[in-house]
Amino acid sequence: MGWVLAMFDLPVGTDEEKKAASRFRKDLLDSGYLMIQFSVYARPCVSYDQLTNQMNRVKTFVPCAGNVRLMFMTDQQWEKSSTVIGPNYKQGKRQVDPKMPKQVEFWE
Known about the structure:
Elements: E1 2-9, H1 15-30, E2 34-37, E3 40-45, H2 48-60, E4 67-74, H3 75-80, H4 102-107
Antiparallel strand pairs: 1-3, 1-4, 2-3
């Protein structure tokens, strides 16, 4: 059990690049990823096969000028990580410390 992390730099200098970056983020969310930071998304994976499938899927919708790093982190490593937030940081609707969704344990 673990997480696949998608960390990326996408150009947003033109309207076309902005649309491609927005589409990429939407595709990640539609694929079950959670936004951890503005350019860091994570998705739980219950097997290496699922990890491979997710990595292959993300490769299909990376923008042409995108730089995306996909990394696997075990659930134990995820639990040992910590989130440090400054007192003036605007968290918005994002979770401070996303946990493994319960439905993953039963359905994937």
